[in-house]
Each structure stands twice: as C-alpha cells, then as structure tokens.
Write a structure and sequence with these properties.
Elements lengths: L2 H7 L43 H14 L3 E5 L2 H10 L7 E5 L4 H13 L3 E5 L15 E7 L11 H10 L3 E5 L17 E5 L13 E5 L2 H14 L5 H33 L4 E5 L9 H7 L6 E6 L4 H10 L4 E2 L9 E4 L16 E5 L5 H11 L5
Parallel strand pairs: 2-3, 2-4, 4-5, 5-6, 10-11
Antiparallel strand pairs: 1-7, 6-7, 8-9, 9-12, 11-12
Helix pairs in contact: 1-7, 2-7, 7-10
Bound molecules: pyridoxal-5'-phosphate.
Length: about 375
C-alpha cells in the first residue's frame, strides 16, 4: 500500500454506526481516575501533558511515514530538533553538526549546548564516509540535514550512518524538506528523524508543531524521557489540525513538488541565473545521491543569481505578486526570501552571487512562472 493510502486509514477511531470520521478532540490538563490505587500506575495516561488520543493517532501516522518505532511531539519544529539533541548529549559530550543546518539549530549549539558544556564541530555537508575521522572519543551525536535549508547540499546518509554505527554514535536528521515523503532516512540507517510539521503537515501556515521519530523503542524512550523532564506539551487542537493536514499531505506535496521542479528547470536557462540549487536537477553536484536515496523533490529550492547589487535582488522580490515575502514553506501560498544575510557557514565555499529561495505553494505553476518572469527585469 502506498503512503498516500495509509495516511487516509491510519490513526482513525474505530468505525461503527454513527461514529465520526475523525477522532474527537479531548482538551484536558487533569485526567480523572476511578481508584486512588491507579494514581501512580504507569498503565494510564495520568495528565494532559502526556498527550491525548489525537496525539496517539498522529504518532501512528508519523511512525508509518518514517517507518519508525516511536514518535514524540514538540511545540515547534525547532523544539523537536533541540529535544532530539538534548536526548543525545550530556555535559562533556561532543556533537558533529552539519554546516548547512537550520540556523536556529546552529544557534542552539553555539549558546545553550556550549553553556551546558557540550562542544560542537561543524562539518562540511559533503563529508560522507570521511565523517569517521571527525568522530572524537566523546562524540555522541551527528546532526544532519539533507538537503540543507538554504544551500541544498545532500549528505551521503548510508556512509555517515555506517561510520557512526561503527563508533557507537547516534545520528539524527532534520527531514523537514522531504516531509518524509521523498526521503526515508531511518531505512538508510539514521537513528532519529525530525520534522517541523509546521510546514507540509500543517499546510496552511497557521500552526507551529514538531515531531521526533525514532528508529527503535530504546531511542524513543530516551526522547520521551527528556520530553517529560523538560515539560514539552502540544495542544490537542494543534495535534488535530496537523493530523487533518496529514490526510491530504501527499496530494498537496506532489503539486508543490511538481511546480518547484518545473520552475527550477526553467530558471536554469534564465540569463539572470548562475545556478539553481535543486537536487533533482542533473546539474546539482549531489544529483547522484538524490537519485539513489530520494524518490522525489519538494516545494523548496534555491537560486544563485549572477552577481548583482543587493538593491536589485530586493527589487526583484518586491516585484513578485504571487510569492509572499516570508520564512517557512509547505503552506498553500508560495514564498520567496533572499538568503545572504542568514548564510553562516564555516566549512563551505561561497556561491559567488546572491542566493534567493523559492517555496512553491498550490497556485497554478504557469501563473508562478509568469510572476517570476515579470519580476526578472528588476535584476538587469
Ligand atoms: C529545516 C527546518 N527545520 C526546522 C525548522 C523549525 O520549524 P518551526 O518553525 O516549526 O520551529 C524550520 C523552519 O523554518 C526549517 O526550515
């Protein structure tokens, strides 16, 4: 059965006469017990912070998506990333952090982890099996993101997973770009896959939500323990909306993915463009890895413009009518940002031209193309 079919039928209440299609939302802090004897039993969900039936349904969906064994939720995608990291480190440990990771994760490493006595080394995302040489005696985690949020390099995940396993190091990936739909990192040997469900699963740019999927119950228990220790809670209403989004995510994803590929292919031939950063394009430096490990693309890609004054880049973005100017992706509306002010890499070469990022929404692809075409003269 395809994921798109599974997502319609997984995590649903038992069907019977008069039952609703969707689970009812249960809002609760206090949960009551029949007997005082049960108050301290681990057999029962004992408090609202421990989730609800809707959360269980959503966890079942994420485990199906990633072929994982356990799923924990966090109040944002960033909180999901930091939850996974915190579950894998203690004071004195060392983390290998991909240089192309989502900026706030890098800040978390540079501030919070540093304060907690955890050191970090950033590595070039194209390091592959060579990661073995970067692993120290106290390395406990390799943090990955493929493709990177802004710069779209891919990792050789099987090679990194293999090197990490040989040295007993946990691997975790921010899998937000692929939505888990076109990349299944746990099947390539990665231990933990993290999602900003804020993007495709929400799909409507109005909820912030994160998920951490573990490849084994043992790792899942570690994540759950830290989630409980730090008190992360996600509202049942938000969980319900993310579950609702999951029912249609494949259809929405496929449309945005197709638009992105069409635009990326067209932009490659535009005079103003130096390079398009989309791993499904044969010219992408990591295209072979993409062809081996991914089953498709996503809504998001980058464009390196030929060198031009920043004012012209801003004028181009301001001239777009259908692309909103804003962070994020995976919603129904298309977005565009210029990336240079937030590029903060230590191990990778620069592009030699301004970098912008497009996120395709659900508009008609021909309309999006026409919108970009009418704005391009601003780059002259
Ligand atoms: C790759 C990636 N990871 C994590 C996040 C964080 O997600 P959230 O906004 O839900 O905290 C984002 C948000 O833009 C992202 O792009």
């Amino acid at each position: 059965m395809k994921d798109s079919t599974k997502f319609i039928h997984t995590g649903r209440p038992k069907v019977g006469t008069g039952t609703p299609v969707n689970r009812e939302i249960t809002r609760a802090s206090t949960l009551l017990f029949d007997k005082a004897e049960d108050l301290y039993s681990s057999d029962f969900r004992n408090y609202g912070r421990q989730g609800s039936a809707v959360h269980d349904d959503l966890a079942a969906i994420f485990c199906k998506l990633e072929l994982g064994e356990a799923c924990d939720f966090a109040p944002s995608g960033l909180a999901a990333c930091t939850l996974a990291i915190m579950a894998c480190v203690k004071s004195g440990d060392h983390v290998l952090l991909t240089d192309n990771c989502y900026g706030p994760v890098r800040s978390f490493a540079d501030t919070f982890l540093k304060r907690m006595g955890v050191t970090t080394t950033r590595f070039n995302p194209r390091t592959g099996a060579g990661i073995s040489e970067l692993i120290k005696d106290n390395t406990t985690l390799i943090w990955l993101e493929s493709p990177g949020s802004l710069t779209f390099e891919l990792h050789d995940l099987p090679a990194i997973a293999h090197a990490a396993k040989a040295k007993g190091v946990t691997t975790a990936i921010d899998n937000t770009w692929s939505g888990g739909i076109t990349l299944k990192p746990l099947t390539l040997g990665i231990d933990i896959s993290v999602h900003a469900a804020t993007k495709y699963f929400c799909g409507h740019s109005d909820i912030v939500f994160g998920a951490v999927v573990s490849s084994s119950e043992k790792i899942g228990k570690r994540i759950t323990a830290v989630r409980k220790q730090i008190g992360h809670h996600t509202s049942p209403d938000d969980a319900y909306q993310i579950l609702r989004g999951a029912r249609t995510v494949h259809m929405r994803f496929a449309r945005a993915e197709a638009s992105a590929l069409m635009l990326a292919t067209w932009l490659e031939d535009c005079d103003e463009v130096q390079q398009v950063l989309h791993p499904a394009l044969p010219n992408h430096p990591d295209h072979d890895i993409w062809a081996r490990d991914f089953t498709g693309g996503a809504c998001l890609f980058g464009v390196v413009l030929k060198p031009v004054a920043e004012a012209k880049v801003l004028a181009f973005i301001n001239a777009l009518n259908l692309f909103g100017i804003g962070y994020s992706y995976g919603g129904f509306e298309s977005l565009c940002i210029h990336c240079d002010p937030q590029l903060n890499r230590t191990t990778s070469e620069s592009f030699g031209g301004p970098l912008i990022r497009f996120a395709c929404g659900l508009e008609d692809a021909a309309d999006l193309k026409a919108d970009i075409a009418q704005a391009l003269p601003n780059l002259k």
